[in-house]
Specification:
With about 180 residues, the protein is mainly α. About 20% of the residues lie in helices and about 5% in strands. It has a two-stranded antiparallel sheet with strand order 1-2. It starts with 6 loop residues before the first helix and ends with a strand.
C-alpha cells in the first residue's frame, strides 16, 4: 500500500507552515547511538525519601498594618511601597548580592539525591581552546566560581565541553 497526499493537502500545509529546505533538515540518529533501556530495579539506597518537612512559614515576620513611611514610587500606592521596602529590609539576608552570598537548599527541607549508575565507559570531550588574550580572565572566573561554591573540585573521569562567550555588555565573559 502506498500513501498518497492530495494536492489540496499539500497546498493547505504550505499555506499553514513555511518550509524552507535550507533550515529544516530531518536527521536520523544512527542505530549505534540509540539509547537502550537496561532492565533492572532501583536499589533501595537510591529511592527518593518522602517525609513531612517542617513548616517553612514559621520564621516569616508578621506584616505590620501600618508600615513605616518611605518615599513613594510611580507605579505603587504609597502604602504598598512602604510594605515592599519594609519586607526587603526585614528579609535582606535572603538576597544574594554577589556569588559569595549564594546559598544552597536546606538539607532538612530537600535531602540530597543519590543517582544510581550502571557500569559504563566515562566520556571525555575536548574543550575549544581558550584564546591566550582572555586566558587569565577565564582562570579568574573559574577561581571565583570555585570560591563561591558554584564549582567543586572533582577527580572524576568525566570531562564535558565548555566554552566562553562575551556577554551583551561587550566586555564581561560568561562560561557555558
Amino acid at each position: 500500500t502506498a500513501t498518497t497526499i492530495s494536492p489540496l493537502t499539500i497546498s493547505v500545509l504550505h499555506s499553514t507552515y513555511q518550509l524552507d529546505p535550507i533550515y529544516h533538515v530531518l536527521k536520523c540518529k544512527p542505530v549505534a547511538r540509540k539509547v537502550r533501556l537496561v532492565p533492572t530495579s532501583m536499589p533501595a539506597e537510591f529511592w527518593v525519601e518522602h517525609w513531612e518537612a517542617k513548616d517553612p512559614l514559621t520564621n516569616l515576620p508578621v506584616l505590620p498594618t501600618h508600615p513605616p513611611p518611605f518615599v513613594p514610587a510611580r507605579f505603587l500606592w504609597p502604602m504598598e511601597l512602604d510594605l515592599v521596602w519594609w519586607l526587603v529590609r526585614e528579609q535582606e539576608d535572603a538576597f544574594a548580592w554577589d556569588a559569595s552570598e549564594r546559598g544552597t537548599f536546606q538539607e532538612d527541607m530537600f535531602l540530597p539525591l543519590k543517582i544510581a549508575m550502571l557500569a559504563h565507559k566515562p566520556w571525555i570531550e575536548q574543550n575549544i581552546p581558550i584564546p591566550p588574550a582572555i586566558f587569565h580572565e577565564v582562570i579568574n572566573i573559574i577561581k571565583e566560581k570555585i570560591s563561591a561554591g558554584v564549582y567543586k573540585l572533582s577527580t572524576l573521569s568525566y570531562h564535558s565541553k565548555w566554552f566562553c562567550i562575551v556577554k551583551k555588555d561587550g566586555k564581561s565573559l560568561c562560561l557555558i
